[in-house]
## 1
Amino acid sequence: MPRRDDIQKVLIIGSGPIIIGQACEFDYSGTQACKALRALGYQIVLVNSNPATIMTDPGTADVTYIEPLTVPSLTEIIEKERPDALLPNLGGQTGLNLSSQLAKAGVLAKYGVRIIGVESDAIEKGEDRIIFKETMKRLGIEMPRSAPAFSVEEAEKVAAEIGYPVVIRPAYTLGGTGGGFVYNVEELRLVASRGLAASMVNQILVEESVLGWEELELEIVRDAKGRMITVCYIENVDAMGVHTGDSFCVAPMLTVEPKLQARLQEYAYRIVESIGVIGGTNVQFAHDPKTDRIVIIEINPRTSRSSALASKATGLPIALVSATLAGGLTLDEIPYWRDGTLDKYTPSGDYVVVKFARFAFEKFRGSVDKLGTQMRAVGEVMSIGKTYKEAFQKAIRSLENGRHGLGFAKNFNQLPLPELMALLNDATSERQWIMYEALRKGATVEDLHRRTHIKAWFIQQMQELVELEEQILACKGRDLPDELLAQAKRDGFADKYLAKLLDVPEAQIRSRRLALGVVERWDAVPVSGVAKPAAYYYSTYNGPDRVPVDNRRKIMVLGGGPNRIGQGIEFDYCCVHAAFALRAAGFETIMVNCNPETVSTDYDTSDKLYFEPLTLEDVLSIYEKEKPEGVVVQFGGQTPLNIAKELEAAGVKVLGTSPDTIDLAEDRDRFRLMMEQMGIPMPESGMASTVEEAVAVATRIGYPVMVRPSFVLGGRAMEVVHDEAMLRDYMARAIDVSPERPILIDRFLDNALECEADALADGTDAFIPAIMEHIELAGIHSGDSACAIPPVTIPPKHIRTIEEYSMRIGRELKVCGVMNIQYAICHDKVYVIEANPRASRTVPLVSKVCAIPMARLATQLMLGTKLQELALKHRHIPHVGVKEVVLPFNMFPEVDPVLGPEMRSTGEVLGMAPSFGLAYFKAEEAAQPALPLQGTVFISVTPRDKPEILGVARTFQELGFRLTATGGTCQFLQDNGVKCDLSHKIHEGLRPNILDEVMSKGIQLIINTPIGKAGTHDDGYIRKAAVKYKIPYLTTVAAAKAAVQGIAEYRRGHGAVKSLQSYHADIG
């Protein structure tokens, strides 16, 4: 079938901000879709609220809208752009749900927009639990026994009939949001109410438990002629009971019989055919190894997290192919490197792929490290090896959690076997490390299989690694025998881990290995579905080198590794732009990364992609092979910086800012000394390696103080400490975060306005496109604070000071590339907080608001271009961009959702408008839940915040909102002439209390500032209830001021939707 000529303009809906369950794999799939459809000659209109993506760059689509992903917003865009078609299945659950809502609201019919790729009734068949169940029944494919419920009472009845334990699965959600296993009626009431609240249609499925069964996934692609191919067979190593996004998994299936795989394929084809998806579909099964019973768990009639993994594992870009199929082509018209056309595709390859999840429980004090059907992972890594052991150990060292192997993590090695076995009662993020030590202490494969339901074959492989490790440990104090070292490398043991086991420097292991000729060799994963031959590469110690190199001028870019809180998609954005800029400058580009979700690991982002861990061992091996002219380290976040000095010491040329400069800026003592010499003020501070030193420093500076470990990203273990008792408690908990580095103690600038500047620098000169003003005051991590560009309230004299300081610091540090400097304005004085001579998470934000491609320009500066040659000018920006963050507290219901100096957000959105108030309102609308335009506002603030909240309360009253407040706040507002009703806190014992009002939907906005030690426990339940019932809540007075301004402006008129290209054209 030829390309469709009945459509010319296609609307693609993106997935919005990065959240748990929906990460940057949708930037990857959306970017691929734009690429595929533009290549077919279609005009693309893209809508997404996430500024940190490549997808929302002005060059990716013909017209780009960074607007809230809501039905009213999309309706306005459709009315304005008049697309012929909507492609809904590349924007994750968000894109799918919105497409369904637009169809049901009659918007698509009104404007003549047809859905391509997947029909709206197909979305229902896949997502609505009742319709899906009916479809499966008709096909004769078994499902776990289940029934839908629309209330907790209905759920109780269903569970009683099925028998406990049961699983709760909310409809139209992602990442298992709101669901979980329940073992009794009390747990059911809690999880069912959470699930009903999470579901778009207030529907849950109460399902028979298949806990402990095998979880098996197939990625299917279907075309308009009904032809289907199986792209990938994925075996989850963790059994049913752990969400597939958290589960450790392998491809191809390593322990599943071919006969069973054929049955699964036959079932999957029947399902996909009946649902009628054109493009990719993920199908998940559970299999009981004891009875051989197979049940279907769910399907995703869209590209998913598993699609990104399957694409990278096999070399078949599912999103690219799906978009091409939606454009009218069929599988027999798409090329395939092995057998001509893609309809003949079968999975092939003599390698094993392992995916391992990355978690962030340490960021959420009070969170419980327990894995279930609700996803908790914030990122993932993928590794490729010739054997399972090699791939598994490569995945472990890719995680960047300070562990390069499976042994001696935390204190597990010191625990007796019964304690280790007790720790395995529940699945946790530490399970593999605990199992490793349990095997060392004498646990049997059968013991662990019974405890974890992980198949014996995988545990046997681990046991063999433990036995080999014990042989290595026996050689401590002498050289490893040659064959033992070679065997260790073939089984995936990292140089750094071997050095730790033997208590020798890593360089000693490396030189010994090289002397023996035990070196990484390379093989290729060929790319399917593309006309021009393409491949990407992986290392192995188990085969010959099959990857040629040429003599072109080349430069290597080090990526950011797995997504995590503090280091997300923004850094991948920078790496991708670096690759594009280097290619444009005539260099062969070499990308190194291990994150399967990203655009940087797409097959054609760089000339050569090495899918490898970002460790010294792996990067040096690639460097030795390719011999590039230099390596770019300043775009991948903390990941490449952690090895930059060692790379330089090994003879690698680091482009741009030198590792010593980066080190100087990260070393607070060296940086402070430099600031003192330059006469630039910083908050008073000190460093401490012991508790007593810390107490002495804090006493000298005066409380409150900000404490943090040195050399971390995302404010890890950072806290505001108010007294000596809190400081002693912090030191007891935090000293092991970075043991070789001291603790930093700064004077906390109370009520200070924070701001930051991203600058381009060439070693002698610097250019600052715009300054960002934080909306939250000091004490909230910059990554969690909303911010406005250009600044709204900073006086011109302070802007001039910030620009001057930034220029001087850039010059003094000889920064070449990009840098970020954070400032605080307190008592009319500008202080430097910190300087980061590397890309920051705000680079894409500044680029999009100011129309300056910072990462591309920074790359040109690293190659020797001078700022003068770029002829950059400060231009008037007639609009305001407000960044707001998205927080994952809905996935951590046990945690008090309050902001602080440690970063917790997983992603961000951007609101753009002619004024600050409108931009803030749009940002909140995009982040969800949106600010209310009427109703009741609940206020409960600390005594110190009462004077500041008065103006906010008055404005709300003028806007016609009803106000309600707790005792002290209510009295204060009434005393100052603001009409306000009294709400009761739970401990007061009077009903209805504030929780009753929240639960009965009597409150539309919550303003609640935490008291600190005295009040966190008391008010935490209010904030937790706000998260559960999706009520917008604000925990700072600054945010409350911005919110009331936004509501007031929006009610006066919200303006029209406007494309990013139009915003850029209006910059003077």
## 2
Amino acid sequence: MFKKALSLLLSMMLVVTSLVVTVMSVSAAGDTYFVSGCEELTGYKWATTEATCGDNVMTANGDGNYEKVFTNVAVGNGYQFKVVKNDGEEWIGIGDGYEQNFTFNVKTACDVTVTFNPTTKEINVTGDGVDIPKDLVIDHVTAVGNGFGEWLHAKDWKLDADVNNLTETSEGSKVYQITYENLDVYENYQFKFAANSSWADNWGLPESGGAPLNEWFDLTYNGQDMIIDTDEAGYDDGYDIVLTLDLSNFSYATKQGARCKIDIVTGDKPTEPATEEPTTVAAPTTVAPTTAAPETEPATEPATEAATTAAAENGLTVKATSNLFPEKKIVLSPDQKTFKVTYVFQSKDKDVLDFQWFMYYDSNVLKPTDNTNKSTSFEYPSQGSYMFNKKIPGEIGATGTNLSLYNSTSKEIVFASAEFEVIDPSATETTVNLDAQVLRLSKVDPDTDYTITEEEVEITNFGLNQENYDKFVTVCKTDSVPVSSEETTVAPTTEEATTVAPTTEEATTVVPTTEEVTTVAPTTEEPTEVPTTEEATTAPATEPTTVAPTTEPTTEPTTEPAPAADPIYVVAGSEEFAGLKWIGDPVGGAQNVMTKDGDLYTKTFTATPAGKDYQIKVVKNVEGTDPETGNKVWNQTWFGIGEEYKDNLTFNVTDTCDVTVTFNPATNEINVTGDNVKVVTDLEVEYITAVGNGYEGWLNGVAWGVDAASNKMDKIADKVYKISYTNVVSSDSYEFKFAANGSWAASWGLPAEENGAPVGENYALTYNGENMVLDTVALGYEEGTPLDVTLTLDLTNFDYPSKQGAKAFIQVTPQAPSDEATITASSNICQANGTGTYKVGDKVSVYYVLDTKDAQVEDVQWKLSFDKDALELNSLTMPAINDGFVNTDSYEGSASSLSLYDFAGGKKLVEAVFTVKAAGETKVNLNVVDLTLAKLNADTGHADEGSEYEAVVNSDIANDIFDNINSEAKVEAYVEPATTEPATTEPATTEPTTVAPETTEPTTVEPATTEPTTVAPETTEPTTVAPETTEPTTVAPATTEPTTVEPETTEPTTVAPETTEPTTVAPATTEPTTVAPETTEPTTVEPATVAPETTEPTDAPATVAPTTPDATSATQAAANGQSTADTATPDTPANGTSSNAVQTGNASMAIVILLALISATGVVYFTRKRFTK
């Protein structure tokens, strides 16, 4: 009996032991590891889950270690990674707490093997070309931050901005310094220091927050963003910030020893260091925030340069805000009742296609002035289609479209601008807000000079596209300045607005109105049509009416004090020579002030490079007083050469040399000398270009393109040039001039008192004259009438010394009306458009072919749009779907079937047949609202749920849609379908001869496939198409870095620049078992767990996941940041299934069950023996 009991007990123990061993086995087998790191190494940017890490899962090698081999890794520095356990349960790096990213370099391309020991948490990297750095080699250090206003030169989290590189105070000192001057008070200047233009090595604070001012403080390697708050500190506008980084005691092994000092400098800038540490740093003396600016201005500066905040105590505070542009605040003095707000924009790679904005203000406090109008509100008011409205109190609106694009890549442009008058003197604060609702960019097709549809991108469309913003926007800044007796928008005041050069480079600045130029400015290099920005207003227009004055102003003597002060002479000219574009006042052009040498004045420009058509004038400035305001003003006289000194002096430099400009006030004679200087005495014409405003496609739609190849004229005889334009629509606003050799140095227009160009007769031209206006409406051609225009320039009798003898001839003829229509078919699911040209009355088929490859269509919903004045719809069908719904009244349709629709190989999804009603260009667009694909389950005959793929949802297409479908739009001549009647021939058997079958031929009416009478349901168009919340009002780049947002599934929150490498990754303290670093990136960029698209660091706890080396966009996961946060929840697998780690335990569980069954069998066996006995 005892033996039986013992046997039973042993059997039960066997069962329990088996279960324990098996569970332990399952637990051990369930751990999985993958490598997460920089995209250059892993192919994925700091993946957070096994489902998103691609093929970076590590393999057990049999000795207890795991490894992953990366083949043929390219040469590079700063490769970084961490090992991730169980879908983000733990992020494992190196160093204390395993928080630092593992960093290595590859000296020669090779295979790289990463090995990990789960027991010791040791990571090794091996490879023939692998080099693991033991010390930090610094090539340069860059200050990187949010670039608000002029902070960091407006570079928003730009690692490679050379302008923000710090200077080593002395060779080998490892102390670096940079100064930012004349900054405005602001509470959120953010920054970090980064080495070698990479987030691999950077320094910040342990936690994102305010940095100490005017004292040394320690830095954290791959730490969080530092914030400078000069508002709370009590400073006034106009101070300097000096940043000093001391790495002299930094240890790469411990990552300790870096420190920083932020000096706020106001008033006079001392030359001695403020402190003794570090001894190698010339740290500026800091001044308490309350220190006032110097009471007096330098004697040579005009009163217009006085600080605008001097009397701001009782003035109005104005905040200029926007959803796209940074905030700007100014304080008006009590006597300042007018101010101007300008939003400045510049892009790269692509130019502006269209935009729409509304500027909102409090109509009880402010009122737009007369200077707020269409011509000043936008850089190119005469190009494309531009509409402006300020009639609604409290709101100014504008919208513009130019299929030939608005040039926004070559310079900063005025995106939106308005001038306001303060009408409520009791108001203390007000806001002007710009809502940039739509802004799209594109590229021009050189063959058509129109936008390339496939290149069109949205910066904002009632919601910011952060990825496109970071990729294509280089400048977004806000400028608000007082406009009062001290500041105005135009200089010189005698220049007419129409003579301002169209393309000014500094649209955001305002020229002081105190510069009352009593004489005409020099002939600047650009056409006369443009917004009134600083450059435009001050630049002498080489075009028409901007020529220098013929005499000195008669008011000059009365405004000069007695005894008269010595005049100040300034050289003004082309930017390539003078460094400034036609700036003639002694303040703005201080660098070009001439020195008195006896009776002459001279200015030497050293090392002037070789170049052609350098141009100058000499500007006489006499200090005077404005009789109305009492303010100091500069009365100016511009001197050139030729008759009445109105022509610019033009010269060439054949090789680099010093160039000296000499002016004789007694004779007004200008001389230019230098070893390689050649003054132009005759005009050598290489080619002539017709240049103008490009309005409504005029001049091929090119606005003031002085070197536009499409507008180069044909040389039809010696010194005679001709060009013809067809299909020019009649208008009263076509402006143009002729320019030689792709430059404004030599151009021809009309005299200042004229602008209307004669048609059908030869007329004399003025050298560097005013814009000519071709008004075909005045000729009797109704606006919009197609015309042919031919321009001829005759220089046969042109004499360069006298600048006389040029003639022009304009021929305008009506164009025979066309009966052809060009139809373009497009769709949001088609990568290319279809097009075709047909005559009025033709029937045309527009259809869209869809190929779903190895899947099929489960459901689809769409809407067609077209111009009903140009096309008449005959039929609208879904040829490959028999049970779909089509509504020919609303031009929409839908279909849905669990049995799926077969589109493999390509079939017509939608076909519309039109009759052409009108000539011209027209578009047909198919907007697919929803499209779901799936694969058929052969067993059920229905869609396999696991295979469903949402290609389009609410008109938004999936990023990888074109990996899953092929599609194209087609326009073809319509061919009536064959409607042959069914053969009803009599039976072959001749008898009975009288039995002609009664089944006469069926009337073979047109195919019954015309539009189904069952019109599509009224709900075919989803009611949720345009989400009301699509436009975040805080889109502006300044908000790109929400410090508290953590992407739920983004990459390790440690991504962004702040902790570019998860040096602080895996929390040294308890590690959240499910978290990827929340704030590894710049805390200012995006959610703490999301790296700003602008590669800025985010603020993340120092104990986070991978400290990824580069920051990502605000919409990306923090996977790009350093591992400095450990609270983010890891992503779940993309397909909703559990990870492979769980699946590895299934086989072990089967073993457990098997052992349990064996043990149970033993128990039964012994029990049965007992009863048998």
## 3
Amino acid sequence: MGEINWTPSQRKAIDASGISLAVSAAAGSGKTSVLTRRITERVCSGTADVSRLLVVTFTRAALLVVTFTRAAAAELVTRIEKALSEESVKNPSDKRLIRQMLLLPSAKISTIDGFCLDLIRENFQDTGISGFGVLDADAEKIMKLDIADELISDYYDGNVSKENEISDFPKFSDTLGSPSSDNALAPVTVKLHDFYSGCVNREKAIKDPPENAEFHLSFWGKAIYGIASELARHYMNFFGAALKTIRASEGASGWEAAFEADYDLCRVLYNKLFLGAPYEDIREYLSDFESRSVKCGQVKSQFKTPELEYFKNIRDKKFKKELAELRKNFFSCTGDMLKKALSETESLQNDLIKFFREYDRRLSDEKKRRHMLGFSDIERIALDLLYDSDNDCPTAAAKEISSRFDEVYIDEYQDTNELQNKIFTLIAREDNLFTVGDIKQSIYDFRGAEPSIFTAQLDSRKKYGEQNGDKAAKFFLSENFRSADKVINLTNAVFSTIMNTDGKISYGDDEKLVCGKTELISPLPEMHIVCKSDENPSLTEAAVAAEKISALISSGEVKAGDIAVLMPTGAYASDIAAELEKRGVPCRNGTAKEFFQSPEVLLALSLLNTIDNPSRDVYLAATLKSPLYGVTLDELIYIRRCKKTGSLYSALKAFTEKTGFAKGKRFLSDHEQFRSRAKICTCGELVREVYSKTKITALCGGDKTGVNTNLRRLYDYARSFESGGSRGLYTFISFIDELIDTDSKVDMSGFGGGADAVRIMTVHGSKGLEFDTVFFCDTSRGFNRDSAKDNAVAVRGMPLAPRIYENAKRIETPMRRAATEIQSSRQSEEKCRLLYVALTRAKRRLVITGSCDEKNAKKYDFTDPSSECSLRRSIFSAYARKKCKSMLDLICTGLSECPELCSIDFMTELDTTEKPQTKTEEKNSGTYAEGRYLAEKRLDFVYPHELLSRIPSKLSVSKLFPDVLDEKDDSAKTDALPAPSEPIVPVFIAGESDSGASRGTAMHTFMQFFDFGYVDKFGVKAEIKRLAENKFLFSGDSEKLNVRKLERFFASPLAALMRDAETLYREKRFIIFYPAESFSEDEKTKEALKGERLMVQGVIDCAAKTKNGELILIDYKTDFFPDETGEDEIKKILAERHSRQLGYYKYACRELFGKSPDHTYIYSFALDGTVEI
């Protein structure tokens, strides 16, 4: 059947029956085609009825096919339809096939959510749930945050059910959240709640298993011993390889004794761990490991090869440090300390369980009130329908549903979680479950995917044909029909090294790709590493990639639409897009970017805000000045001058009525129409009308810049918003504001752009896609380890591991450190899988780019046997993989064994050499894009050091802020506007004001000149009089001084400290140089400013050197606060408001006095006390 020449392995996967089969399908192996063919043959043979695909109400001989995305479901339906159509053409008299074709539209090949939804709706009498909608993920997130905030407040107020009370809720809040912020606990609550939503039994997952065994036999003890064993085993191999090299090298025997001692140290440690020695024994053994170390003897320089130097460097700088960290992190606790840590950990776990019970109840009540469910609710309710948790067995409903299916198909099984897996095992039988997946492509840990489930399924089974009567088997599809042999060879070389370790992923003969497309001719894969240096700061990886892409397109080898630029994250996407656009290359940026910061979305939201409330001046000004209405800055000034009070909207109306301002008339007409429509139509309809009438897409640049993509996504938001039960423009705007406040990012993969454009996307967004040419960029970006910073670490399959909060301090525990370490190991495995997906997207051409400092370039030279990456490969392990810092580290380590599989180029300058053109080519210079690029390149020369020319010669401390040297739009500066119509009256005519600023100046002047001895003897008032008579205070300053506040200062401990100081510096003026890069937040600017200095002048209010040698920095503040402001709030505001300025003063102290201040105080006259910064 069919025209495809199925390979023997594919044919077996199609034909196998009467058995549960787990198919490990490698990238490009045609798994979807195999799955389609298997289903089609069963339908055509009469074993299954197409109308009953995934319909859970049908009788036997039905099939259940579950996929993980709507796109995959739609593709499968299309493929089955095509296959049935082909069979019908071959057998026109087969009435059953014709019937199957007619019934195909009723077939449901569903996502997991769709399947669970059908279960709930069909069994509403058992679930008690009917007539509900499904919450949008963003709307649910905001709801969960709101309810978490309310619950936290109620816990503080004691307004919770008695059974869920937490004895010390402030401690609970400070432990999981932050003692310095009341807003920290809510997002942590939502994050942990989402994390545990994929668990069958959340409470069991959170809490430590009950154990009475000794610590080393407990769950945490075994975890810690596993971590220590990994380190010991790695360094045993390391020192073994080093000793082999030393013994084979001439003149290196002086190091042999030291390396032998370290090898023995690791061997003994590993054996103790392997044999299960008590915790105290390991602790004692590591307590003085330094005493077992032997100092290296002498080796003459002529005998020190790069390989020997590498081993020596690792031993001296890494091994000892890492072993000391192991001791400190895991084996420094006494028995009592461990018991206390375990007790505190268990207490917090119990409190979190209570907190979640109350949280779940309130979430459920709110969702019932709205008649809505979230996606995690749908799966949970489906599980409750199928699973009797009290007796750990299927329910009657599960047994009845299971009996309906002859075969259950599940695609992308590597991305399932524990709860979903439980559902599938409840509806499948031991001989009818067909799962398809690829462990090496499991890259969705952040969504809850647990690849260990599919791994366990594969590990527990024998290969198909070898199962000896078993009702379950496994099968491998390794042929790749996507990529050329050169791409496959590189992929196999890399992953044979980085996956074949002692970790949880492997890359053996079954997993290696076999080229199924041998006829495809391809170039050798390329690697370009940009060497950054001070001499050429403009050379960037983005520019190199864009230049290579431009050259490929210009040569006619590929079209723009054949190229994809993939990156580990979307952080670098805008840089590459900008470089491509600079060269006239069309591109589509599909990364998950700062959607709400894109200009077209900001403009659309400004207009919507103006329609909702025209009195919001900022939004109105943005709308008027935009391309929609074209009001200039000067025109805005004239509008405001027409009516200086009231809103800008009222001024616009007055100005338009007075002058007949055409732009104003058009805006007011549109605004009136949109306001009227907003009252009667949905948000989606209003947004569509706004787009249509204003022509916002065309005015903002059209689809060439991705405008259509972003505006269409905003329109989708408006449509989906009201499907969740909310109504009205104001409510929609509030919803968007909350999304922005919660830092929500919008996944734009799959959206927008023309067909013939370079695709820019993350590796996650490229899953399931393929491209002729792939540029894998930004590979040197460091791996993100931020999750290790969480106060409580949640790792799948492990209990929650928090820091302990005691005596206002966070205390680390061995349990939390173990959870963090295991999480790091799993993240390193996921990075390998992410790399696998990236490399296997390429069909014909693969180009890898990265960057490094010029001095570190050698470490990535995989063609050099003495380079760091080549030497690392010889002792590569799961432990070494965990220590790799980037994708580039992994790739170069893997390639070092077969350097001939990839070319490498270390770039120190950008090659933009133009190819000579023929006369015909000069006449017809190519496309508009090429012409534009050449014109810009030849005419738009930019002075390479223009940034340095903008550094001011001098700045005062008051003008400093972290991005003061970043380029800004100064078009609205007041000194560029026409002179005001009212004359400025000099102070000597108008008289001095009694403003807060003038009173603050007076207080500072007094603090500069007062005399402690005079104040102590005659009092503050007498000192004020003395200073005024001696002209230290200006005329009028005496009345501005607050005598009571000054008297309280002189009675304060700070004044006593100043009296007793050995040296007191008051109004200490300085001019010093600061590193210029400290005053930019732009990474490119910071790089360009390295080595440059900025002259800064300022005045330190007071610095005191005490008799015991301490340096005290003091700053006086006269900030005003309302009477109702509490002391803690004042302290918080002062710290936030002035910490940056005092940071600059601290730097000045280091320069002036040769040391940093031991203490830094703000003396607040509003507080009558000090705040230590």
